[in-house]
């Protein structure tokens, strides 16, 4: 059996994962240029009631001043699953945005304020996030690339990992698929030498 084609010399072998990585690249471009006509067009078609960010995996906020980040709903904590606070927002919470847990005077995390509403494990995960010393705006970052920018190569590896997890969670799926393919091939009305070649 022939070797799978390498896309652009980058080691891409799984077409589905490569396709997902390319689609994610367009999503990244959409987030970086939200007012472009094409970005507004695709948002209207595919995400009319939400944002691309809410549908994305691997994309999270990088905390700077904390003013743009919804503490409870947005992805922003690198060491937690889905980068989100894993508990629902308590009733009458004093925390809305990430800026609400940054002390105005010291510019550091307000540990006491966090401990009133969230578990200590989540507080510890937040304390791992360094705070900027200058008041820059929060930024979107691609978690799986050290520079925070999306690349097709890193997107491909994440898509491939997700596909592998799906297949491993369904035992026998790939075997059953291969079995069905062979059934179809052997039933085809072609010369036996062609079947043998396949």
Describe the structure.
This protein has 198 residues and is mainly α. 43% of the residues lie in helices and 4% in strands. It contains eight helices and two strands, in the order αααβααβααα. It has helices spanning 15-32, 37-46, 52-55, 111-117, 120-127, 152-168, 173-187, 192-197, and strands spanning 59-62, 139-142. A two-stranded antiparallel sheet has the order 1-2. The longest helix has 18 residues, at 15-32. The radius of gyration is 23 Å and the shape is elongated. 16% of the residues are buried.
Write the layout of secondary structure elements.
Layout: H1 15-32, H2 37-46, H3 52-55, E1 59-62, H4 111-117, H5 120-127, E2 139-142, H6 152-168, H7 173-187, H8 192-197
Antiparallel strand pairs: 1-2
Helix pairs in contact: 1-6
User: What is the number of helical segments per DSSP (H or I, 4+ residues)?
Assistant: 8
The string of secondary-structure elements, in order, is: HHHEHHEHHH
Beta-strand share of residues: under 5%
What characteristic shape results from the CA principal axes?
A: elongated
Oligomer: single chain
* Computed CA radius of gyration, to the nearest angstrom: 23 Å
Q: Could you estimate the helical fraction of the residues in percent?
A: 40-55%
Q: Distance between termini?
A: 8 Å
Mean pLDDT: 75
Low-confidence stretches are 1-9
Helices and strands: which structural class?
A: mainly alpha
Q: In order across it, which strands form the biggest sheet?
A: 1-2
Major sheet details: 2 strands, antiparallel
The total count of strands amounts to 2
């Amino acid at each position: 059996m022939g070797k799978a084609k390498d896309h652009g010399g980058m080691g891409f072998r799984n077409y589905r994962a490569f396709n997902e990585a390319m689609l994610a690249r367009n999503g990244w471009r959409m987030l970086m240029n939200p007012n472009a006509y094409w970005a507004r067009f695709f948002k209207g078609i595919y995400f009319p009631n939400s944002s691309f960010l809410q549908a994305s995996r691997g994309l999270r906020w990088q905390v700077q001043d904390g003013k743009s980040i919804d503490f409870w709903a947005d992805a922003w904590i690198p060491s937690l699953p889905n980068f989100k606070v894993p508990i629902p927002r308590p009733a009458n919470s004093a925390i809305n945005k990430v800026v609400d847990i940054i002390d105005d005077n010291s510019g550091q995390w307000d540990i006491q304020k966090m401990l009133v509403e969230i578990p200590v494990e989540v507080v510890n995960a937040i304390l791992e996030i360094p705070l900027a010393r200058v008041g820059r705006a929060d930024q979107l970052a691609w978690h799986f690339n050290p520079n925070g920018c999306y690349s097709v190569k890193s997107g491909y590896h994440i898509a491939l990992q997700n596909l592998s997890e799906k297949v491993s969670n369904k035992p026998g799926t790939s075997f059953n698929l291969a079995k069905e393919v062979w059934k179809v091939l052997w039933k085809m009305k072609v010369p036996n030498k062609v079947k043998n070649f396949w």
